[in-house]
Amino acid sequence: MGKIALVTGATSGIGEAVAILMAKEGYKLIITGRREERLQELASKLKTQYGTETLALSFDVRSCNEVEQYLGNLPEQWQSIEILVNNAGLAVGLNPVQDGVLDDWERMIDTNIKGLLYVTKCVSKYMIERKCGHIVNLCSIAGKEAYANGNVYCATKHAVDALTKGMRIDLLPYGIRVSQICPGAVETEFSLVRFKGDVNRADNVYKGFTPLTAMDVADAIMYMVKCPPHVNINDMVIMPTAQANSYTFNKVL
Fold first, then answer.
1. Alpha-carbon gap, residue 41 to 21, rounded angstroms
2. 8 within 8 A of 61, measured Cβ to Cβ
3. I want to staple 82 with a disulfide (CB 3.0 to 4.6 A). Which of 3, 14, 65, 167 is the partner?
């Protein structure tokens, strides 16, 4: 089969960009996401452009039962996963905590924390059997600092930071590398999801400066996974030049 990589949240943004770069490197790909049509379109694109053998699995990482159904029972030829990119995640809403929307909180907690855990538990078992593998968690600058009205999103990404450190300790005896990447502002569907489809509000986030692209972050992830086996990039913070921290930008409007 060759090397196999699994990318969650592959239907857009960073996940899609990572899948494309993995395909260029000759990996077989397991791609997951909730949007079946987009997932199949990506699988077709990877096959046509790169000849990539792809297993497309449409499910919601928030559901432990679905994760176990699809990833806990992979066909034997797809179980030798070399790389797991835990990309699935989102921000919803931008409210002070006293005005928080419970459904928004639950979506972020269930996706960003519990979904990552469900996927990692299933996939790490395959890696432990083989005593090798590399897990890359998508964190955020929000996992390093808090910012106004980002309370619960920041909390979930701080959790990812802690979980990454814990995973690295737990999986150390099995030779499994664990890394995380913490991007600043990346122009993807992130803000469109956060503002629940409000295009104008989402577009305003990126006005006046040049944000990162999904491919910028995917390039950095590829650097991580292409390091020699004895090298692990524990943590990487990647920012636009015009962004100093989670809330300070040099915008020219």
1. 16
2. yes
3. 3
Q: Provide the residue type at 220 as one letter.
A: A
156 contacts 114 by C-beta, under 8 angstroms = no
**What's the structural domain count of the chain?**
1
103: containing domain: 4-238
Cα 47 to chain centroid distance, Å, stands at 22
The amino acid at residue 33 is: G
32 occurs within a structural domain: yes
**CB-CB contact of 160 with 137 (8 Å):** yes
Q: Which residues are catalytic?
A: 153
The tens digit of pLDDT for each residue in 8-32 reads: 999 999 999 999 999 999 999 999 9
In a domain, 63, yes or no: yes
Q: Note the pLDDT tens digit of each residue in 188-207.
A: 999 999 999 999 999 999 99
Q: Which amino acid is at 174?
A: Y
Cα–Cα distance list, 75 to 44, 47, 69, 132 (Å): 20, 20, 12, 19
